[in-house]
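This part of the workshop introduces the protein records we will be handling. Backbone structure tokens are a discrete shorthand for how the chain folds in space. Once this layout is familiar, the rest of the handout is easier to follow. The record below serves as our worked example for the rest of this section.
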Amino acid sequence: MKRLFLPYILFAMTLGCHTAAPTSEKPVVTVCNPMDLSYRFCLDEPSRREAADPTIVWFRDRYYLFASKSGGYWHSEDLTSWTFLETDQIPVEEYAPTAIALGDTLYFMGSSTVKSTLYKSGDPLNGIWSVARESMDIPVWDPAFFLDDDNRLYLYWGCSDRNPLYGVELDKNFSFIGEPVELKHARPEQYGWEVPGDYNTLVNQAPWIEGAWMNKVNGKYYLQYSGPGTEYKSYSDGVYVADQPLGPYSLQEHNPFAYKPEGFAAGAGHGSTFADRYGNFWHIGTMTISQKHMFERRLGLFPEFFDEQGIMYSPTRFGDYPMILPDKKISGYEEIFPGWMLLSYGSKIQVSSSVDSLPPANITDEDIRSYWAAASGNPGEYVSLDLGNLCDVYAIQVNFAEHQTAIFGRQPGLAHRYTLEYSEDGSQWTMLTDQSANQTDNSHPYFQLPEKKTARYLKITNHGVPGGHFALSGFRVFGIGNGELPGGVTGFSARRDPADKRKVHLSWNKAEGATGYNIRYGTHGDRGYLDYQVYTDTTLTINSLNAGAAYYFGIESFNENGITEGTEVVEVR
């Protein structure tokens, strides 16, 4: 271990600073992960919601979002408000659908164990589709199309615990030109992020390598893929780089490029990379719950950048806190983080009733996998939070959890109906938003307040549920507290496991007043692109390293009042 004090280099700058809410007169527009969508109830037992393996494409001044097992697709003009379109004209029950815009036509194809059918539409906004090709040359799973800037078309695919990812060129009729090329094999013995398990510890189990996606940026081809398995919090996307669309490919130094192993909702795997209308890149990936069923999943949207050396990276620091959707070209993560901190972690809670095995503490533990349930779904069931002090509240995210539902598929009339109120003293309440007549079936609604509110107490009251009990996995409140910043971290140390270089053991002293910590790290001292967030703990083992690379680690502390940056970087070889 080599200890470096580098307060002046870029890496230290990315570790964070005291942040505050935006002060410009122009209001910002924010979103929060998991994405605020109408996640569908699955068709099979047990009753649960799912969306995963997303593709976003830009077509005719609109974003189109396709995801596994969703019963249709979404469209949006701004990446903020999404409209769902239900259709039976394309196979929306297939896994890992892909789409590509070619001229004035949008093409769609799902995964299949038989030869997939390709569909086309000139008017997807109205759900009008037709068959473009009855069957592809061979069955493909987790497909992804790519159009090069010389108008040559390619197909990439693969989803297996033993087979590689493949690629092939296509002609104008979508037929193969030549034989498929093997592009990437799993190497979990070298790359810790490919080892299965929530914490990459199942070393004797083969990973699932899947979800191919391709982008070309500044003359380089970026072959993206996911592993080690959709049910794990470690689900992430890695990337290989080449000078030609079919390789040969070499591992990018920084990997995985999209990685969110902790926080309220974990996972950033099996997604797609796309550019918005301003030329900013985004990565949409799969976030795991995987409690009622392995395929209980949600979607997450993260910014993506390419540095001066062409390194692709997708920051997930505070990746499930509010972020600003820009209305211009941006150059870094700091331009989209509004500085709104989590105010509700560990808050005192009052509830109307509880199922004994699902206590109220699950509402504020920052874990989407745990939830509280009231004794019923009756109107009047409620949750009240005490933030402990008066705070400036800017946004609220409500995360509903289904408890003992018996709902399957999309059905008319499903909706959570409720009211949100706030108070300074716990006795006089003011309405924040009245959703008692809500008609949308969104299970992770996010509310950015028109203006900040000074509040200590917040309350949600049930007026109706789609089915089962009134239940919450998170009642999350964002803003700025009125207390002190946390103390800086001392005693930070890192030790590479001599028996397994994929592992590093970190420890530090508890920082006074800290709610949690962000470990920022990477393979260069000036590129802390990876992030690992912890609450309360002061030790951590990360098992997802590249065994053959050196790493640099830094740490910052945070609480409801802001962030205290770290300036010490530790090198491990």
The two ends are 7 Å apart (CA to CA).
